[in-house]
Amino acid sequence: MTVSALPEAIDLSHHLSSLARHRFPSPLKDIFKQMQREGIISMAGGLPHPSLFPFVDASVSVYPPSADLSGPTPSAADRMSLNFQKYPSDKGAIDLSTILQYGQCEGLLPLRKWLHKFTLDVYEPGYSNFEILLHEGNTSGWTKVVRLLAEPNDFILCEEFTFPSAMAVWVPMGCKAVPIKLDGQGMRADHLEEVLANWETTHPGMKRPHIMYIVPVGSNPTGSTMQAERRKEIYEICARYDIIIAEDDPYTALQYPEFDVSAPSAEVVHQSGEEFAKSLVPSFLRYDRDGRVIRLESFSKVISPGARLGYFVCNPVFAERLLRATEVESQTPSGWSQGIILSLLETWGQSGYLTWLSRLRDTYQTRRDGLCAAIASSFTALPARDYAAGVPGAEGIALYHKGTDPASIKPDQRPIATFVPPTGGMFLWISFSLSLAPRFRQLVAEGAQDPEKTFMDEFWEALAENLVLLTPGSYYLPWEGVDKLTTSARGAPSGIGYLRFAFSYEEPAVMAEGIKRFQQVVSKMFDA
Ligand code: PMP
Ligand code: PLP
């Protein structure tokens, strides 16, 4: 389908916050426009003259897109070079006098054009007039979205376990989470429908939520990935209840097939960049006929977090208001970052970038497989259903102490822990049956106020003492209001505790050693 055959975004300006509505263009904008006139002598803007920048030229060596990321770094002969010069004489060099100067707040035009084509080809948005605006990574991008849409005390729809930095933006505004239950694919459409259909009864006199925050690929923390059918269902519910979907998707390239416990070290077969692009689950943009999706994409996880670069894909009204905010909040992402990433993408080309993403995905899949296999082999691991990682309906792996004879396990015997092997991203989420821990039972018997939190804090400390560091699960419980301070009051089932493993950083062999240490602590703290 050609872009022009698609509808334009509908008017969604009623979602704008009072702050966003009242923003006005930077007065400097008119000056910048006039400066483009041929022959103009500008004594208007406070631009430093580029001759006074201390930089003369720069060269950045990069891997080729098809670099084998599982082996040693590619040899110098295989590297590609990105060149930067002040007033370039070499063809293809990026002009430092432009990228290091004050620039367009939307971001460098050639970079936005590159990303527009990429978005069109790979994500195929369902409406025609979407726009691209650069931001400084999804952390900052999401903060801008909250200020674009949310009023103090609004309710924000999110997953039952959600990214704490995202919540930390809305909590000080008095906004409260509306956690939607999860299954193996992430947010459940039936529970979303139920919450919205019953809103007037459950929240009499309170404004209905109009913003959804969702991490649909490699959910942080659960590692789940939402498939196409579920996305369609969720989009239709959001269209019916007039909800804006903020799709925080830094892990979009990191999608994995299900982990095969019977072949844990199966060789990953490389795909071409084009095959890889076709294999991705569609973004919410694909179903977005209205322009109600704000897609937040980041280079952090696929190039480097220190680049502090990402981009919004959204409707023109939201893009214009986000631009007004950007003019006075950050102006633009760093010129170095924009210049280096533009040059990298132009040098690799779209097909090369897709090949890079595909190889990166393969490397993370190997790490995912390594972590799952290390956990499974350190315990007696059996298929788990219905309660895997506390996620009803998810198929996963149940862990019993190492050496337990599977034949001796009774059908209703609780495992120590369960997890669902991640299908995306960088995280593995594991749940523990705390009733199997003597110390937890003692806390309950003593009438401790929040036995889950107290036990999990002690467990986490014991792991750190044994030199293995994980993230406490309590970080990810959505904040629903000041009156809900205990773990169970914040929506977690009682008697269950969670931890999050990241498989992004340590080598598989090091992770295996970490799992050995983890298993030692578990064997001490849970009943034999
Ligand atoms: N504050 C003042 C007083 C300025 O004159 C300027 C630059 N014109 C700025 C802030 C903007 O600074 P920056 O480029 O660091 O955002
Ligand atoms: N959103 C989610 C869901 C994340 O997991 C992370 C990183 O951990 C971020 C955003 C931060 O992204 P960025 O580096 O683009 O700000």
Word description of this protein:
With 528 residues, the chain is α/β, with parallel strands linked by helices. It has 2 domains: 95-363, Type I PLP-dependent aspartate aminotransferase-like (Major domain) (Aspartate Aminotransferase, domain 2); 365-525, Aspartate Aminotransferase, domain 1. The chain has 15 helices and 18 strands. The strands form 4 sheets. The protein has a 7-stranded mixed beta sheet, with helices on both faces. Strand 9, helix 9 (228-240) and strand 10 (244-248) form a beta-alpha-beta unit. The longest helix has 44 residues, at 335-378. InterPro entries: Aminotransferase_I/II_large (IPR004839), Class-I_PLP-dep_aminotransf (IPR050859), PyrdxlP-dep_Trfase (IPR015424), PyrdxlP-dep_Trfase_major (IPR015421).
The first-level CATH class name of the largest domain: Alpha Beta
What ranges have pLDDT less than 50 throughout 5 or more consecutive residues?
none
| Binned strand content | 15-25%
Number of strands: 18
- Whole-number mean pLDDT: 93
Main β-sheet description: 7 strands, mixed
Give a list of the ligands: 4'-deoxy-4'-aminopyridoxal-5'-phosphate, pyridoxal-5'-phosphate
| Fraction of residues in H or I helices | 25-40%
Going by CATH, the homologous superfamily of the largest domain would be: Type I PLP-dependent aspartate aminotransferase-like (Major domain)
Number of helices: 15
| Strand line-up of the largest beta sheet | 4-12-11-10-9-5-6
What is the CATH topology classification name of the largest domain?
A: Aspartate Aminotransferase, domain 2
- The figure for the number of domains is 2
Silhouette: globular
Oligomer: single chain
Specify Rg, calculated over alpha carbons: 25 Å
Q: CATH architecture of the largest domain, please?
A: 3-Layer(aba) Sandwich
Distance between the termini: 61 Å
Structural class: alpha/beta
